[in-house]
Amino acid sequence: MAAVIPKITKLSSLITRVLGCNPGPMTLQGTNTYLIGTGKRRVLVDAGQSGVPEYINNLSNVLDSEGCELSDIIVTHWHADHIGGVPDILRNLSYVPKIHKYPRSDKPEPDIGKIDVIPLVDGQKFDVEGASVEVLHTPGHTTDHVVLHVKEENVLLSADCILGEGTAVFEDLHSYMMSLDKILKLAPAVIYPGHGPIVQDPVSKIEYYIKHRLQRESQIVEVLTASDNPLTSMELVKIVYKETPVHLHPVAKVNLEHHLNKLVKDGKVEQMDEKWKIV
Ligand SMILES: [Zn+2]
Q1: Under 8 Å CB-to-CB from 114, ≥6 apart: which residues?
Q2: Ion ligand 1, residues whose Cβ is below 5 A away
Q3: What band does 1 get if pLDDT is binned at 50, 70 and 90?
């Protein structure tokens, strides 16, 4: 069990974490939101979920006690536990901060009412007093996912790309792995995730994760290469995940197909009807 995350934590002179107070199986202890900057005008990263007065109160207490306002709210991706709180936050303010999010490429944006959302661009920079924040598009978890790099402290706000506990979920393994590479190149000193506690020593954690995925991938390639006939996903599961209990094979199949779709994109595997074969 991970350590309890306090509702409000001043992580450094630059960054304060405000817990979304929306615990659940997918959100763990809740969504972590982060207030960045040292001056009167600050940037909030993620807005928690809709209908959580405790979070709205905690956030406005922080703003009051620090004597600051929100100039911008950056939403890391379209999921309800990150964007849902935006209308509630705005309703509670006497001014209007700018709302930013990277556009989705798969489906329409979620409905958050009549709120202008300014599209983020990969590499975009936000200069707040005390901190410069760079936006990096890191698809995989979702198509619109971004992480934020705070230069002064070499901190990466990873949102749902890397979690503080458990394993990240993703829609597309191919882009997810490329996003991990992108984060690795930054070599962040520490990661502040969207859920769960702070990740110390993130570089070795990401390297381990990539290695584990690549091992699974080469195992799949080996089995397909050795097979005389194309194989179905379930036939592959029975070989590749033979140490996994049978009742978990349907879950393993989902993982395996993530790998297979990535291998198709890499040009190493081909899908014919319901079967897979090596190129
Ligand atoms: Zn989330």
Answers
A1: none
A2: 81, 160
A3: low
